[in-house]
Amino acid sequence: MAQVLFLGGLGRSGTTLVERLLGELPGVCALGEVVHLWQRDLRDDERCGCGERFSACEFWQRVGKSAFDGWENVDVDRVHALRDAVERTRHIPRLASAVKPAADVREYASFYARVYAAAAEVSGAKLVVDSSKHSALAHVLRAAGDLDLRVVHVVRDARGVAYSWTKRVARPETDGADEMTRYSPGRSALLWNAHNAAFGLLARRGVPVRRIRYEEFLADPRAGLRRLADFAGLPLQPADLDFLQPGSAELRAGHSAAGNPMRFTVGRLPLRHDDDWTRALPAAQRRLVGAVCGPMLRAYGYPLNPEETR
Ligand SMILES: [Zn+2]
């Protein structure tokens, strides 16, 4: 049975960084955001984290062979149709309340389960990591019978997340021709509430969910990784964390299929808590996000007045 650690949370919450650090641990195979594999890799042949085009990456070609006897046997239109039918935030209440998952939910989940099992087999890893983030997908994966699913729910201060969504970021996969999505602070505040609540619901449905605060994780990545390894049932030796130095990590190339541009970083990655929002997010927007997300910010232990953190 494939053992999967799913990294969830609203985008720009730090899931890519957590995944890159987890990917350095022995016995871990980090896959990136598998949710985008079908379109961006199978269809668009974008770059893998190793730098190769998807079709030229030996790892992913072996995974496709093992999972589907070749990627050409995957009906991407079918995957898209299933996704549109089941993997939507508005479907989460239905997904969460279903005693027995519907056939289309099980079929959609099985595509992921096959990728995870094949990746574990090809890499020899004990644990595969999917940083797809989407809460609806995490709910769907409950329907995959042959999966040991554990979820890390990454939370970051909603105001930091909102500020990040306002910034322009080019997508290196498209050689800068395309930009990552941007959201207004009001919109990202609503999304932040919805996605984080969805992971709370997942935990109440019996899925092992470990919530981490991104800011806390960055303050002590060594302790944070030890706790996550423990949660995932991964035995660690002290030397396994030697890639961490004070304030940085030394990364090797991985095979992340899709996601944040940080997936391409090889070598030294600075581990610095980015609190630019405390200076750069306009006061009115900060108040708006603080008001919309206030109850959950408080529940997660974030001070509503950022001056309190100083
Ligand atoms: Zn690759």
UniProtKB/TrEMBL annotation:
An example GO BP is: sulfur compound metabolic process
- Which domain of life does the protein's organism represent? Bacteria
GO MF, one term, reads: N-acetylglucosamine 6-O-sulfotransferase activity
InterPro entries given in the database record:
Gal/GlcNAc/GalNAc_ST, P-loop_NTPase
Q: What is this protein called?
A: Sulfotransferase
